[in-house]
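Q: What residues go here?
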């Protein structure tokens, strides 16, 4: 059980891009390679959000728990902080 706990604590997602050369040895399928190197989605029209998003209401305890989980994921490198950019 300790083995799995340690693996979970040190897991880092998003490593697939570091192994593109290996993927190219496995397949020449352009759809698979596009997925590995960065999938792009083409839209026929510009998407517009009609209704504003509803903000969930968390209790102080829930908010603290969520903040600690986000901090944990940031520290493990599973996610990274982003900033809003105007288009």
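A:
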């Amino acid at each position: 059980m300790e083995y799995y706990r340690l693996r979970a604590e040190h897991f880092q997602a998003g490593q697939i891009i570091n192994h593109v050369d290996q993927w190219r040895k496995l397949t020449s399928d352009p759809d698979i390679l596009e997925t590995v190197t960065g999938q792009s989605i083409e839209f026929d029209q510009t998407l517009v959000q009609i209704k504003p998003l509803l903000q969930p209401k968390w209790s102080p305890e829930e908010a603290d728990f969520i903040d600690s989980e986000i901090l944990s994921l940031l520290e493990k490198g599973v996610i990274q902080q982003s900033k809003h950019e105007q288009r």
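A: Context that may help when evaluating the design: The chain has one domain: 1-39+57-87. The helical segments are 2-9, 20-26, 30-38, 60-76.
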